[in-house]
Amino acid sequence: MDIFQCVPNVSASDPELLEEMAGACGEFARVHDYSCDSDHNRSVITMTGAAEELLPALVQLARLCLENIDLNSHKGVHPRIGALDVVPVVPLFDTSMESAVELSYDIGEAVSSLGIPVYFYEESAHNRAYRYLENIRRGGFEWLRDHPGERPPDLGEGLHPTAGACVIGAREPLIAFNVNLDTRDTEIAKTIASEIRSRRKKKDKRFEGVKALGLFLRSSGTVQVSTNITRPHKTGVFPVYDYIRQRAEELGCSVKGSELIGVIAEDISARIVKDALRLEAFDTGRIIRKAK
Question: Among 23, 189, 231, 286, which is least packed, fewest CB within 10 Å?
């Protein structure tokens, strides 16, 4: 049986609504984790299952987004174009990427049937310009609303007046990793994020597949370097953290804390420990697991 991970990103940060959404998804698929952030005004749900489990879970989620979220009044530091903003589909274990692409198209058809336009990205992209998420979301919901027809979706027409559009696609696993800095100076976070992007473009192996943004977190009065590590088996989490820490100190501040969004694989967590402590010959075989 093919098994997939889906990590829908929702443009809301209401804990009660998130509980309702996670509960609705959990009626069909296995929900592993869910969290929300008021500064990003965003929630992330991590679930796994077979296609026949995930499809109805995402339809229920899309309906709840339609009923409860109006992007015209949505404010947050994270880029977004939809109430149900992004639905990544990740093949697990021996499941093929082709199967993940097929599931993404089925999800897209189901979401589109609710009146929400759909863009396909990453491995599911029909349009080469839409392969990268940032190309679809550039300018956000407001830009798409104000420029009708200039960036047409793959399914549907225009934007839903309150729910916007949804981006769906099959991709490899990634790690959403954020580092919060003990300063109110957003330019420091933006400078570090820009350096990471520049180094990635220059083929610096420490930052292969790393996307980064500098953001201000109003709730805590600090700033954040928000990253997606899209090639986690090539690019370590700790080297990214260590670079941000080093540059922050050089620019006159320090790291307040960091966070991982969603779940990570066991071998990735072992690598973080190994890199941070410079352990030699350390692997997951040396981790004791509690029997379930």
Answer: 286
